[in-house]
Amino acid sequence: MAKQSVSLSREFGKGLWAENPVLVSLLGLCPTLAVTNSAINGLAMGLATTFVVVSSGIIISSFRKLIPHQVRIAGYIVIIATFVTLADRYLAAFYPDISKALGPYVPLIVVNCIILGRQEAFASKHHPGRAALDALGMGVGFIAVLFVLGSIRELLGSGSILSFQVLGDWWTPWMVMILPPGAFLTLGLLIGLSNWINEKRATA
Amino acid sequence: MNLILIFISAAIINNFVLAYFLGICPFVGVSKQISSAVSMGLAVTFVMTIAAAVTWLIYHLILVPFNVQILEYVAFILVIASLVQLVEMFIRKVSKPLYDTLGIYLPLITTNCAILGLALFAELRDYDFMESLAFGVGAGAGFTLALVIMAGIREELELARVPRHFQGAAITMIVAASLALAFMGFAGLLSI
Question: What ipTM, to 2 d.p.?
Fold first, then answer.
């Protein structure tokens, strides 16, 4: 039993760093870059994606023996699209501002490769509980990257984090950081940094 | 005239890859060589044009009359997935050389967010049929342009000494940042 619980926590933990969907597997880059012009947008997108990946993971792993192998991708996509519609309607109803800011990137969660990737690589082969843990780990890893990226860009681009003014009047906002080039630049530097940390940890 | 404006806007000013971040996965994955970048660009443009037409028809002739716009995402993604399959079979039957050129890039297009993004943007902006078509061709041309420029830079980058930790994806992102910066210069070209 002890062995089982160790591997369960590993199932959750691998998404946070070792197999982080964005920094290591380079999946889901479109939303990562598009919505991180502020920390709150990044957070909302991360939460919506986590909701979809966890709930579709549970459903798909429960039905994994019923879905015929040949049409599994189409089946997965329909299940994912259903949950995305739910998330989209929920955001539009309760957080209209965020829903407006994210725009078409909420429906685009359907084609986020993280989600389909986890279903194909994990949920279709494991029990629902384990699949949920795996999906949750990936989701939290995704939220973390989105939040860090959004915070850096918001801090440099408008001098605030989560709309609280952090830097004073002396700070000249780097407009470019909240525009598309800033997204590419920040993500590139973050990936480089994570490579560097990994190497430090491997040699330490 | 309006159609030309939409085309130029989608291809250059609001480039799908560099301004909307759509289709980043193939942009990073298939931009190592100019030749494969051209093939991928062609395949995407081809599917985008057809997808723009078909999703417009589905939305306006089926979803709106039956008042089931809530099914929009499910419908679009299913249509795109089967469309890619269909296009693949059709090309294999009609033109073997073209099929061999596009090769493995065709099935990859299903999960290319640029296609679904195209359908969603066209619907959001209330384009009519011809405008959607122009938007599709323009977005495809813009995708090809960005991909080919990127592949050209990456071929040169092979010879450059990149800091060890930045090799691969990291330096690609930073190059993309400078490309995006360059494309921002087109922003004042047209005002729509």
Answer: 0.85
